[in-house]
Amino acid sequence: MKYLNNNKKINSLPSWQELPLGGKVLQAGNSNDYQTGNWSENKIHWDQKKCKQCNMCSLVCPDNAILKNKQNKMIGISKQHCKGCSICIQSCPFKALYKN
Q: Tell me, what's the pLDDT at 76?
């Protein structure tokens, strides 16, 4: 079972269909509380060999979808949260992120 930073089980989070109508943000900083990864068919992929661990992607990701370990090193992309907006791709100076 995978867990987020706030110890919530990933499969216990509401899907995008369960979001409040009207696009209201009821509480700021709640991107970890919703699974929005199935909004787009274009998924972001990470090339571990090209990545230099600069963390620019995690700074710009609006969905907190960049997964990091305790040493603050990138270990992947959360498919449950990534909407495929490509902001991380544009920010990566090493071209380590790409769309399918």
A: 95
Q: Where are the alpha helices (DSSP H) in 1-100?
A: 56-60, 87-91
What global pTM score does this model have?
0.66
Higher-confidence residue of 3 and 73: namely 73
The whole-angstrom separation of Cα 46 and Cα 52 is 12
CATH of region 10-99, choose from 3.30.70.20, 3.55.10.10, 3.40.50.11540, 3.40.190.10 = 3.30.70.20
Q: Are 44 and 82 in contact (CB under 8 A)?
A: yes
- 12: pLDDT strictly greater than 60: yes
Alpha-carbon span 70 to 10, nearest angstrom: 19
φ and ψ at residue 35, rounded to 5 degrees: -90, 110
